[in-house]
Amino acid sequence: MYRCISLHPAPILDHVGKPYAKTLFKWFDPKLHYWNDRTFAPPRSGFIQASRICAEPFLFDGTKLKSWRPNQALDAFNANADYDAFGVASAIIRPCYIPFGVIGTLVWATNETVADIDAVFSTHAGEMHPLSLHFLSRYRENAAHAKLPEIVELTRREIQCPKWAALGKTDSEIAEIVGISVPTVRFHLTNSGHKMGVVGRAHAVRVATNPGYVGRSAV
Length: 219
Hints:
By secondary structure, this protein is of the alpha+beta class. It has helices at about 20-25, 40-45, 45-50, 70-80, 115-140, 155-165, 170-180, 180-195, 200-210; strands at about 1-5, 60, 65, 90-100, 100-110.
């Protein structure tokens, strides 16, 4: 099987900075430089869309996505999704959730129909899980262009503001609840993001409300 690796938002690079997608895990169509196309994931790639709602391995048999058991999330996805398979006829997809809010997806895919894709899935999907975790985790640790995130300590306000934002509160509502000004709310949201090495309110809220921060006292 051909293999495609996708790690959003940045492509996986080798030791000289070239994308693995270009040098090692080439796609069927050499004209499709999907690692340079920021719209490839998730709007146009069904496999990556589905990885956001299904954390277990699943397969594509050319017509639909399915897993080792009845899966209502995938059933709903198959019934409503409109996406381009980009020439894939058969595939095994392994979602991989790794630290600091990153969702990776490893896809073993081919442009040829694999008649026994269900049997291949049953035999190999289990072993793909630790392989994918090992590969993506080690890559993030050892990539020369990446610096390991530091363990950060958020202040009381830097915990409170993202937690209220995660509950859907606006900056004005947070300001009233916490008893500070709106600019100060925005300052704490921005500052918490800087400390965690993320960009943007949505990413800061998502990371700050992951386990490790949510359970801390913010009253």
